[in-house]
Design brief:
alpha/beta, 8-stranded parallel sheet, 9 helices, 44% helix
Length: 221
């Protein structure tokens, strides 16, 4: 068993323990293995270990490796977890099963148009900028519920969840708590929050999926 598959097993065990202990009662937490910057040969051991849910940051990078991997490993669920530009909506709808980074009107409109054209419906999450960081994508927390409503009523999109990336130098707990509160206000059930350094904490606050990369694949280049 190579390091990535060993690491995968360890992360899965920690998720199971955290979910069992969570006061929120979360029992089924989806592990999104973040494979950005890693090539197909580095991903294959994790696929061979049976894992099928992966996350990528860039549409173009994902397009270079996942079509071939999908031919070899059925049942893959691919998440877009990086910022989406409207001119990449066509490729994103065609390639991804879950798009977690809907964060502005232009993206919502572009996705709605492409989903209708392609007759394909990836699951959609709204990204929330819980730390109000200027350099980071995501909707203002104060506008989240209204934006989710507009996605539904104006663009006909089904928004299933919310996603956040807390500021790297802050305690993530309050950000996870805020996202959980916003999910109730917006009427969505899924919460994508928590990464390699804090996924166990995120589960305590009700995460339904966690995005773990370096703890499985190792340091990025």
């Amino acid at each position: 068993m190579n390091d990535a598959s060993k690491n995968l097993k360890l992360v899965q065990e920690k998720i199971a323990i955290a979910a069992q202990d969570a006061s929120s009662g979360s029992k089924d937490v989806v592990l999104v293995a973040v494979s950005k910057t890693f090539d197909a040969d580095e991903i294959r051991p994790v696929l061979q270990a049976g894992h099928r849910v992966f996350g990528e940051n860039r549409v173009q990078e994902a397009a270079t490796k996942w079509p071939a991997l999908r031919e070899d490993y059925p049942g893959i669920e691919l998440h877009l977890i990086g910022p989406l530009q409207s001119n990449k909506a066509k490729e994103a709808v065609a390639l991804f099963d879950v798009i977690e980074t809907v964060d502005r009107e232009k993206i919502a409109a572009a996705l709605a148009a492409e989903m209708a054209k392609q007759e394909r419906k990836p699951h959609l999450y709204v990204q929330v900028n819980t730390g109000l960081e200027e350099q980071k994508a995501g909707i203002d927390p104060r506008e989240t519920a209204e934006f989710v409503t507009r996605c539904r009523e104006v663009h006909g999109l089904t928004i299933e969840g919310l996603m956040c990336i807390p500021p790297i130098d802050e305690n993530p707990g309050p950000h996870f708590a805020l996202l959980e509160k916003l999910s109730r206000e917006a009427g969505v059930e899924k919460l994508s929050m928590g990464m390699s350094a804090d996924y166990e904490t995120a589960i305590q606050f009700g995460a339904t999926s966690v995005r773990v990369g370096s703890a499985i694949f190792g340091s990025r280049y």
